[in-house]
Design a protein that fits this description.
With 193 residues, the protein is mostly helical. It is 37% helix and 7% strand. It has five helices and three strands. The chain has helices at 12-24, 55-69, 104-110, 119-137, 169-186; strands at 32-35, 72-78, 143-145. It has a three-stranded parallel β-sheet with strand order 1-2-3. Strand 1, helix 2 (55-69) and strand 2 form a beta-alpha-beta unit. Helix 1 (12-24) runs parallel beside helix 2 (55-69) and helix 4 runs parallel beside helix 5. The relative contact order is 0.15.
Length: 193
């Protein structure tokens, strides 16, 4: 039957047990772990840590276990999606790649859902959420998806975004580089993107 599979549910306690198993039973000496689904919101709103899975204390326990094993660990982050089923969905944040498509809803229809948020806004999302997670749990790594996947995008929306002139592809790439530099250089987190 064409039935979508049920989402896999887990707790932070179960993730901590997997970390222990990797180290003790499987003898994995080094690993970089990325855990998807640690927030109550969808990306790019990567905060707060979900109480459903164990909250900040549970996530911190996982991180401490991973650090003790010698592993890098972080949650899944992305600053470019705008997902239609997300209660925080805001089509005004979507790239306007055609000067004639000013309607934000039309832009949402035309854009890949994983590459919607204009890069001029992405650094603000990182600055708003990552320090909170660091203070709450102290992860020692970061996986930020999609930063380096696409070539530069243009954006003509100068009213809802942080650029006052149309964004060029080169500026878009510099904006993404700035997000990576913030994570790596300012927050001192190894990043595997």
């Amino acid at each position: 039957p064409d039935i979508a599979p049920a989402p896999v549910d887990f707790t932070f306690e179960q993730i901590a047990a997997i970390v222990v198993s990797l180290k003790r039973e499987l003898k994995v000496d080094r690993a970089s772990l990325t855990i998807w689904g640690i927030f109550d919101n969808y990306p790019p709103y990567n905060w707060p840590l979900t109480v459903h899975r164990g909250g900040a204390e549970g996530w911190k326990a996982v991180i401490n276990r991973a650090k003790a094993a010698g592993y890098l660990i972080g949650g899944y982050h992305a600053y470019s999606p705008q997902l239609e089923h997300d209660p925080n969905f805001d089509p005004r944040r979507i790239y306007q790649t055609d000067p004639d498509t000013a309607d934000p809803v039309r832009r949402a229809i035309l854009r890949n859902r994983w590459l919607r948020t204009c890069s001029s806004l992405q650094l603000d999302f990182a600055r708003t959420t990552l320090p909170r997670e660091l203070r709450a749990a102290g992860q020692n790594g970061d996986f930020t998806d999609i930063l380096g996947v696409y070539s530069g995008q243009e954006c003509y929306d100068v009213s809802n975004h942080k650029h006052r002139r149309p964004l060029t592809r080169e500026q878009d790439m510099r904006n993404r580089d700035a997000v990576h530099a913030y994570i790596h250089d300012e927050l001192n987190l190894p990043s595997w993107m």
